[in-house]
Amino acid sequence: MSDPLLKIENLHVAVEGKQILRGLNLTVRPGEIHAIMGPNGSGKSTLSNALMGHPSYLVTSGTVTYKGQQIQELPADERARQGIFLAFQYPTAIPGVSLGNFLLAAVRNVRGAANVKPLEFRKELMACMKDLGIRQDFAGRYVNEGFSGGEKKRVEILQMAMLRPSLAILDETDSGLDIDALRIVAEGVNRQVTPEMGVLVITHYQRLLDYIKPDFVHVLVSGRIVQSGGPELALELEARGYDELLRTHGADAAPVVAGA
Amino acid sequence: MTTMADDMLNLEPASLEALSRQLGEPGWALEARRAAQEAFAALPFPERTEEAWRRTPPELFNPQGRGIVRLTPAFDLLGEGEPEEPVGLPFEKGLARLGQVPESLGPSGSRLQEKFSALNAAFRSGGAWVGLPRGRSLDRPLQITHQVPTIQAPAAFFPHSRIVGERHSKATVVESFASQGGDLLAAPVVEIQLEEGACLQYVLVSRWGEGTRALTHLDVRLARNSQLRVLFLGVGGATTKAFLTGNLDGEGAKSEFLGLVFASGQQHFDVDTLQNHHVPAGNSDVLFNCALNESSRSIFTGNIFVAPGAQKTDAYQKNRNLLLSGKAHADSIPKLEILANDVRCTHGATFTTYDQDQQFYLQSRGLPDADARRLIITGFFQEVIERLEGPVLVEWLAGLMQEKMETSLGV
Ligand SMILES: Nc1ncnc2c1ncn2[C@@H]1O[C@H](COP(=O)(O)OP(=O)(O)O)[C@@H](O)[C@H]1O
Ligand SMILES: [Mg+2]
Hints:
- The structure holds 2 protein chains of 2 kinds.
- By secondary structure, chain A is an alpha/beta fold.
- Chain A contains 8 helices and 10 strands.
């Protein structure tokens, strides 16, 4: 088997003094798509933010190894330049900064300024926007300001297309999308997936996985992966719901006794 | 063309004569200076207890014991194009052509009612005179630059600029005030008069040196259906106090006051705007964005006066503050005096600190910390910049802000 692209070992993450991830393990190899499912509040976005290097999400123990190097101490921009991308669940508005200028700055930093010619950049941007059904005038609009939920999600995938990451983390990219938009966005993602790339699809619902077919499905409950399986697990969860898992693994459940 | 420290004049009546002579002024101009000097002497020095001076001590602007810097402004046009003679003269040349002092500088003129304006009228030592001819549109922005070189001994500089937009003229004027090193008191007065239907964009760039205290007066009179857009751009100077006043004298006038303040270090900016609605159906709009780094401080006081009978007035003002450091401080004070009943008047102020989520979002796309900061600040100013017309002007302003960013953020 090839070397892992991402290896998360015994990851513990705290936010504002509150322990959210409590010993998470996950290995992603190049070419693999992993889905992470779980109820609200289980720590899915915490995992995304911690992997991207948000300073408020403190890694209290454990390691994150990406392309053979531990990255848990690296700042977010360094991780981005090394090929990690997060499509945010709630993208932030940056008033006064146009999407076009922002993306040019981003692409320059990630690919190296010398490798980006403004004219070619513009062409590439327009082509990517067209693929994702984003109107051209969005390049002049301020980043996420006044965008609808669906527009924000499309624009996240647009950024992914322009930044061409090796590891993409999609945090609830399906929320806020109607069925047509969902298809366009999923197709956009699928077009970008290469055999070298790893993808973490984080979702609350199964429906996105009809379009982006995962190789593995994991269930996150109370900061731990409590069950892993193939694509069929997603369908099972859809039918069963999270209630039973929450009863056995939730924060209020009886502590798991080692060796029991 | 600057008078340097060795032949600087003092604030004495005898200096008036010397100044007037050096500038080649006629006798009636000297008489007007004398009247202004008397008015200055008779007016009390402002007290800290006065509302306008509560947050910036007036003593900082005491002119005593300083020499006077005499300076001729430079005129040119922004942007590319055919070489053209800019429509501007040194103030005293314009005055000579007019053949008399403008009403505001006359014996009972408005300038002689206020201490520092009277001081400026008496010891006027520079300034520009711009007449925008009737019906003419200037294609390119006119730039006026007052650049005080390094001074050795404490000095004062009193430029007086006058811009008259004749009926249906249209222009953009950028007036920059700058200085190098040394202990300078700068007290510029700018008077703008817009005749019926005239349309003017006026940018006042306050980029004084580190040792400069600046006390700026801008007064605009707007006749019927005239349109004004002012941008006050505060980036330089140690302490700045500015009074920016729009007088909506004619119905249907539109007065837009924009402000960009980017303060760093120990800089102090205290700006009062006043929109005087004297007649019905005027429209005033104020938008002041201040970004404060390190231990800098800003005070924005937005005054709106609506006279009895000035119905259908539409007055709007907004002040946004971006605090880039825990030690920076901003105040926003609205003062509305509304004596008519059928008016629309709104005020809003916001204070935001540097947003960690925005920072993280940008960094997650590969932008280093410094680039992310710069982009967020640029975005904060954009709301104001985009109100301005003309790509040449906008680009020039962007360059100026970038320059300030490089010196104050080191990015
Ligand atoms: N920035 C934050 N500040 C405070 N609490 C947070 C923050 N982010 C997440 N949490 C808390 O961590 C827990 C997990 O949240 P999250 O990771 O967003 O879950 P999910 O994405 O699975 O819905 C929740 O209890 C949430 O309130
Ligand atoms: Mg979430």
